[in-house]
């Protein structure tokens, strides 16, 4: 506000004073500069007070910070405010600076768009707006008044749109830099007519199309940077006529073809990068003519053939990168003449033969020959690695065919920082002199045939940060001296033959983040001190012979069960069995996830719970396969209802202690409640009637009734004709089923038996089946949220895992057999009933049980394949998809049948799997969970049984998928 008033005041005073000071024309226009700069300042935030010297009362701005004046007329000629942390818009106030030549506002926080008349300020020669937050297109006409412009940089902003054609009218232009914006479109055709251009930097944009011919007009061009765009086509044929070119960067485009021969004329060129394009053909022999080359990067193209000998003529070359091409042969001997060479990367080609010994005579700092077919046949050692050579810092010979032993004097490579010999056939032991490599910070000897033990001298390698020795035949103990390598963050010793215990000294490696000791023969217990490792995020000791208690605290409270698996003698909450008892086949659960926490507390209460609640509902699903069976079942109900009238008065009206009913009287049934004290309501109406029917399935009809204490139960009346087991067998099986208790399984509470009537009494879940919740309930109030759905999937997995652990196959998993309790916990019902059948074959299984279309594993159709618990995992996979998509496994459209898992699979192939998630969720779901869950569903629903994971794996995967932040809620 104050500033606005002040400006008004200034303008007014100028108007008033103007006529008086007619003689002094200079002075009045001089004040114009003050006014312009104050207006400019008024629109800015200046958090560091950099412009505090800009005082509106000053007579002249020439002493202000960042301002310079022309001595001839005392007018502002240069405004340089680089790195002042200014923000705001570039204000039109600057237009008043009629004599401005240099405007540099680089490295600030200016926002907004570039004004179309910006370049009409004064006679601007240099404009640098780089490294701000300017956005929008570069205005089309901005370059129309640029006759004096020599340097323009808009680099490192967020500018969009095209490079305006008007640029071609800036005849004085020498330097243009629009790099690191989001410009697209083609290069303006007139650009090659700006003969004065010396430097062009358009890198890091989205520019496209071909680089136009005609570049040879730019006879003064020294630097051409077009890297990281989408340019296609070829390098302009006559580029070599830009004889002064020193730097050419076409990296990371899609330029193809061979290199134009004219390039050999670029004898001043010091830097040539064509990296990351699609160039083909051989590396031209004339490359040796480009005598000034210091950096030559042809990596990641499709160059083939041999490396030309002429490369040895490049005696200024310091960096040569030919990696990731299809180059064959060996390195030419003449390269020894590249005496300035420091970095040589020819990794990932098809080079073969011996490692040229001259490589180590050249004073190289970095050598990467990784991923070729070099081999060293001079048994017994990699003899050409010199052992008293000081310059080498990086040596990467990984993924070749080197064999023999490591030279014992390797410690002589005293400057070595990175040594990667991974994935060769190197044998023998790790030389003790490794400890002399004081600068070594990456050591990778993994995937070789090293034997012997890890030398305790390794303690000398005090800079070591990464040590990878996995996949060898290393034996012996882990040396405690390793604690001296205090910089170690990454340690992988897995897949060896290490013995002994994990030394507690490891706990002194305070920077350790990743440690892998898996697949060794380590024994003993894990040192408690390991919990001190505060930076640890992965610690894998799986598949060893460790025993005793897992450390408690720190990282170990959240350690993944997978990281400790395969050590049968380990105990602790993570491996889900308490010390010291040993569980034969533990379900591996993460005790720290919210679900299993509630799980264990529920399980503790289970004994109290099992009396009360309960029942089963099995709403018959589409029984397409055995319509006949249904008909028989319905007929049976009628036949039975007359028989029932004799049994019912005794069973359901008395309120006596049914448990004591005479078991051998054929007219009087025997009611057994596993939990003693439940009774039916006195004078209850005949419960087995149509009114109380709540569902029917392959095994019979389900009714619901109320116990005397007010609890509901579900009663399943078994279809007797299918059961030919004796009472003894029946009772044994049912009692066994009654012992199966899990928070995700519907509890069996009791049974009733007469030769003609068998009832099973289950806990009753009023909220109904998963099928009802997903498909029948239209009210949005009952819409299952993503979090509820995830909980249901995880709960079902736990229930099913428990069944499989009990060696029970469900055979009939489907959404009508899963019930949801009030806390959204799913409970699987109808399990174990096949055990009541006299015999089990494909025919019975497929007709009687797997009647629900869409859930049935394909192996049911194939008589020669044994049906295993994997058939449940198939059904579970379909259930996952059903819960996530809210669609039935098979849906009938007007003239089409949509099979859910085929539909989801093809959506995944098309990359549109997110669209499969139930649209009723309106996008309210965590895609980072939903997508992997869908993939898991598809894996579970694999056609081939052996491709399906087992349930313990499924639970582990689900717990990994679960977003950590959500897990806390
Ligand atoms: C730009 O502003 C942001 C916050 O608004 C600040 O963190 C950053 O340091 C500023 N950048 C410069 C170059 O001043
Ligand atoms: C060593 O080389 C192998 C194979 O080229 C590579 O996979 C590995 O990441 C490298 N090791 C390190 C520590 O970079
Ligand atoms: C860790 O280092 C300290 C000091 O060097 C030493 O006293 C201690 O014994 C070491 N701890 C282990 C577990 O080796």
Automatic annotation (TrEMBL):
GO terms for cellular component: plasma membrane. The keyword Glycoprotein applies. ATP binds at residue 717. Gene3D superfamilies: Phosphorylase Kinase, domain 1, Ribonuclease Inhibitor, Transferase(Phosphotransferase) domain 1. Pfam families: LRR_1, LRR_8, LRRNT_2, PK_Tyr_Ser-Thr. The keyword Cell division does not apply. One of its GO terms (molecular function) is protein kinase activity. Keywords: ATP-binding, Cell membrane, Glycoprotein, Kinase, Leucine-rich repeat, Membrane, Nucleotide-binding, Receptor, Repeat, Signal, Transferase, Transmembrane, Transmembrane helix. SMART domains: LRR_SD22, LRR_TYP. It comes from the Eukaryota. The chain crosses the membrane at residues 609-635. PROSITE patterns: PROTEIN_KINASE_ATP, PROTEIN_KINASE_DOM. It is found in: Cell membrane. Residues 688-961 form the Protein kinase domain. It is a single-pass type I membrane protein. Its main location: membrane. This is Putative LRR receptor-like serine/threonine-protein kinase IRK isoform A.
